[in-house]
Amino acid sequence: MDRKSSQGGHRRADRVKKRKFRGNQFTSEEDTSFTSTSATKLKKTEDEEVIIEDNYGYCILEFISVFTALTSLVLCATCKEEIKFSRTASRGLGFKISLQCGCDDVTYASMEARTARRSERASENSQFEVEEGTLYEAGIAD
Question: Compositional bias of type Basic residues: which residue ranges (predicted)?
Fold first, then answer.
């Protein structure tokens, strides 16, 4: 038997026939009122009604115009002078915002800076509690 004739003559039983093209998948009409797949899944579930708010999300803003407007409105709490905003530590689209004022204190508006300030305040509060404990120790009247 010839090799070329054996290929076309018999098909294998375990080989599945290729599916036919049934239309363009990108031209089908879809519901585009929701922006994400999660939102469409939540909309399809009928047990709970979930409110989808469009005011949360990422946005690109012009740093100079926004923060120059804020500079004219915001004052430092300690020295009562205007605060100057500047960008530091740029990485791709992300950056840290530094705040400078007349009291020569540069602070950073980042999560690390907020947690550091929070821990400083907590240590100050615990120090006051220790001092109060030494003032009011158990005495004769107790």
Answer: 9-22
- With CA atoms as reference, report the closest residue to 107 among 118, 99, 115: 99
Task: Please check whether residue 41 lies inside any domain of the structure.
Answer: no
Token pair 């708010």 is found at 53
Give alpha helix (H) positions in the chain.
3-9, 37-44, 63-73, 111-135
Q: Is-contact 82 70, C-beta < 8 A?
A: no
Consecutive sets of 10 residues in the chain, 142 residues long: mean pLDDT of each?
Answer: 56 74 68 66 69 67 80 82 81 77 75 75 72 56 53
Residue 67 lies in a domain: yes
Say how many domains are in the chain: 1
Report pTM: 0.35
**8 A C-beta contact, residue 78 and residue 91:** no
